[in-house]
Amino acid sequence: MRRDALRRYFVFRMKLIELFHFHLLWGALADQQFVPENVMEHDGRDFADSVRTALLSWYCTIVDRTAGGLNVFNVWRELFPNHREEIDRVRAEVEPHWEVLRTFRDRCGFHADTPRNYFLAKQQVLDNPQAAKAVQDFLDLAKLLINREEAELPDFVPEVETCLLDFELEEGNRGINRNALRRLLILPRTKYKCFFG
């Protein structure tokens, strides 16, 4: 059970880095700190609106509790039992906004719908500032737990290496770029000895 949770956490960590990237891009664009050169004469806020759609959709994918969804709250509860109270608090903040966020993801983000349903879904998110607060609290909790990985998940990096090796040993699979995983702060940046057991 723990091995499965560690492997799901590994996938989550890769998706979380992408979510952090979207969040940082969105902030820089919304604050006009960065405006891509474009012939459409769009300013940073125009780009920020597009990135916000991806950010919220990515977030929904990470916390999705439907069958086959990642549902990181369950993974966190298993792997970080000392933080269950905070995990449950953040989960409770998401709960009242889940349907609005999921509908936004499904109708505006990763799928398309009729214009009426698209605009209704977008309006429900824009009219709900508490949903944005729930996302920010989620990101804050994720940062806290990342900083606790070394102390509370000593088996995480060895399990990641085992998972990568298992994948690479399957017929037809190529090697995994471990330097990319070091840049994503999933594997340590220093040299270390790994034991497979």
What are the salient characteristics of this protein?
197 residues; mainly alpha; disordered C terminus
**What's the pLDDT, averaged over the residues?**
88
How much beta, percentage-wise? under 5%
In the predicted model, the low-confidence regions spanning at least 5 consecutive residues are: 192-197
Radius of gyration: 19 Å
Could you walk me through the main structural features you see in this protein, from its secondary elements to its overall organization?
The chain is mainly alpha-helical. The chain has one domain (2-154). The protein contains 9 helices and no strands. The protein has helices spanning 2-30, 44-63, 72-79, 84-94, 98-109, 115-126, 129-152, 156-169, 178-183. Helix 4 (84-94) runs antiparallel to helix 7. The radius of gyration is 19 Å and the shape is globular.
Summarize the structure.
The protein is mainly alpha-helical and 197 residues long.
Task: Give the arrangement of secondary structure elements.
Elements: H1 2-30, H2 44-63, H3 72-79, H4 84-94, H5 98-109, H6 115-126, H7 129-152, H8 156-169, H9 178-183
Helix pairs in contact: 1-2, 1-3, 1-8, 2-5, 4-7, 5-6
